[in-house]
Design brief:
This protein is an all-alpha fold and 203 residues long. It is 76% helix and 0% strand. 48% of the residues are buried. InterPro entries: HupE_UreJ.
Length: 203
C-alpha cells in the first residue's frame, strides 16, 4: 500500500506533468546578452526551463541507476563539459560567430534525459558521462553566448551543481517509493523536451 507521503508526492508529480506543456510554451531560454557577475551567472540556469530540467534530470537519472560514488560520475561530467562549452561559447560570441542547432540540441537533451530516467536505463558510468557530456557542451554554448566574466561562469557552475544535487536527492527519494513515481518524474521531463522541440518546429 502507498503511504500518505507517497500519495502526496504522486499528486505533486501529476500536477507537474499536467503543467509542463504550458510551461514549455513559456520557455525563457534566452538570457540577457553579456550578463556579468556571480549572481547573474548563478541565476542564469534558472531562466530557461530547458536548462533547469536537464540538470535536474541528470541527477535524477544518476540516483535511479547508479550506486555510491558512481552516482556522481554523470553530474560531474556534465559540469566539466558544460564549462568547456561555455568557454567556447564566450570565445565564439566575442568573434561574432554562432554554432547552429544549439537550442534544438538543448531541447533534445531534455527529451532524451527524461526518457532514460523514466526507463531507468542503466549504463556504465563512463557511458553515462559520455551521454550527458555531449549534451552539456550545447548547454554550455548557450550559456557562454549570454555570459561574460569569470564570476558569471563560476555562478553558473554553482547553480548547475545545486540542480544536480536536487536531482540526486529527488532520485534517492523516488528509489524508496513505487517505481511509478520515478517513471512519472522522468516522463514529465521528457514531455517538456517534446514540447520544446514541437514549439521550435512550428515556430
Amino acid at each position: 500500500m502507498l503511504t500518505i507521503a507517497s500519495r502526496r508526492f504522486g499528486v505533486i508529480l501529476a500536477a507537474m506533468a499536467a503543467a509542463l506543456p504550458t510551461l514549455a510554451l513559456a520557455h525563457a531560454g534566452e538570457g540577457l546578452p553579456h550578463d556579468h557577475g556571480l549572481s547573474a551567472g548563478f541565476l542564469h540556469p534558472f531562466t530557461g526551463l530547458d536548462h533547469l530540467a536537464a540538470m535536474l534530470a541528470v541527477g535524477l537519472w544518476s540516483a535511479l541507476t547508479q550506486q555510491g560514488r558512481r552516482m556522481l560520475v554523470a553530474p560531474l561530467a556534465f559540469v566539466g563539459w558544460l564549462l568547456l562549452g561555455a568557454l567556447a561559447g564566450v570565445a565564439l560570441a566575442r568573434a561574432g560567430l554562432q554554432v547552429p542547432m544549439v537550442e534544438p540540441m538543448v531541447a533534445a537533451s531534455v527529451l532524451v534525459l527524461g526518457l532514460v530516467a523514466a526507463a531507468r536505463w542503466s549504463l556504465a558510468p563512463l557511458a553515462s558521462a559520455g551521454l550527458v557530456g555531449a549534451f552539456a557542451v550545447f548547454h554550455g554554448l548557450a550559456h557562454g553566448a549570454e555570459l561574460q566574466g569569470v564570476q558569471a561562469l563560476v555562478g553558473m557552475l554553482a547553480a548547475t551543481l545545486l540542480l544536480h544535487a536536487l536531482g540526486l536527492m529527488l532520485g534517492l527519494r523516488l528509489r524508496t517509493l513505487a517505481p511509478l513515481w520515478s517513471r512519472l518524474a522522468g516522463a514529465s521531463v521528457a514531455l517538456l523536451g517534446l514540447g520544446l522541440l514541437t514549439r521550435m518546429v512550428w515556430a
